[in-house]
Amino acid sequence: MWQIIAIVVLLIVIAVMLVLRRNELSAEEIAKRFGVAEEQLREARLEYKEAFVRKRSGGTRRLLIPSDELKSLQRRILRRLVARLKTHQAAMGFEPGLSIVDNAMVHAGHAVILKMDIVDFFPSTSADTVRRYFRDIGWCREAAELLTSLTTCEGWLPQGAPTSPRLSNLVNYKLDARIAGYAETQGATYSRYADDITIGFLDDCPGTIRSAATTVRTIIRESGYRPNGRKQKILRRHQQQKVTGLVVNDRVNVPRSIRRKLRAVEHRLDTGGRATMTREQLDGWKALLAMVEKQRGGG
């Protein structure tokens, strides 16, 4: 009897797999969606040029900039495929309509802020991870391989390609869901802005916070990344609690030191003196101040 049941179950599984395989999206479908010839996708030259930019924390960040032809294809992938897919609500970076202000507001007024960081976030997001993601959302093996080749370089997501930021959020849905689920059990809030992870606690319970740090580090490692121990911070109410550069102790605001500096710069520019930034740079900061004011309701 059990042998018959096992055979029936096996036949059902095989039938489901065949149906799923028939419904898989092909490389031809990619070309149709992107409005280009399939040969153009297959024969695209996967060329990048290397560039380096200074990091605010010191050192340099390596960028891989795609050629104009490849960048054009990547932008089509972004607009017609990647941008339409769902990311976790805790992923704040690179998402349309969201900003560093939204990320900070999640944690405003909390007793304790736990900040963590992922080492080499984009280079650690492997092509295998991207390939598995494309397979999981329904592309056939050949199509998933083609999409992966067009969006990765040297075996990972290239920092500099227009598709990388959104793909980094999409492939990390499970990481976000695991940390968000754990944070909820602790009565805490969670958000991630690229490689910056923030958890806000309403109550200051040292044991809970230490346990949370350990648990989140484990989730990060199990997701294929490496937590940056040097950048882990636990910030309490008596300290300046900053999330993505904004103070969140009571309400979200630009740090007072920066606001004072901006007033001094504006005065120098208005009076013809020498200033440490241009009028355009000042206008950018003033736009940020206005955005913070607007999003917190002007209170």
**Can you list the strand order of the major beta sheet?**
4-5-3-6
* Mean of all residue-level pLDDT scores: 89
**Count of DSSP E strands?**
8
Please outline the major beta sheet: 4 strands, antiparallel
Oligomeric form: single chain
Helix-strand category: alpha+beta
**Global Rg:** 23 Å
Strand content: 5-15%
Number of helices: 12
What's the helix-strand series?
HHHEEHHEHHHHEEHEEEHH
Helix content: 40-55%
Contiguous runs where pLDDT drops below 50 for at least 5 residues = 5-22
* N- to C-terminal distance: 71 Å
Shape descriptor reads globular
Structure keywords:
12 helices; four-stranded antiparallel β-sheet; 48% helix; 8 strands; 13% strand; alpha+beta; 299 residues; two-stranded antiparallel sheet
How are the elements arranged and paired?
Layout: H1 2-22, H2 27-34, H3 38-42, E1 48-54, E2 60-66, H4 68-80, H5 100-105, E3 112-117, H6 127-136, H7 141-151, H8 164-170, H9 173-185, E4 188-193, E5 196-201, H10 206-222, E6 233-236, E7 242-243, E8 246-247, H11 256-270, H12 279-295
Antiparallel strand pairs: 1-2, 3-5, 3-6, 4-5, 7-8
Helix pairs in contact: 6-7, 9-10, 11-12
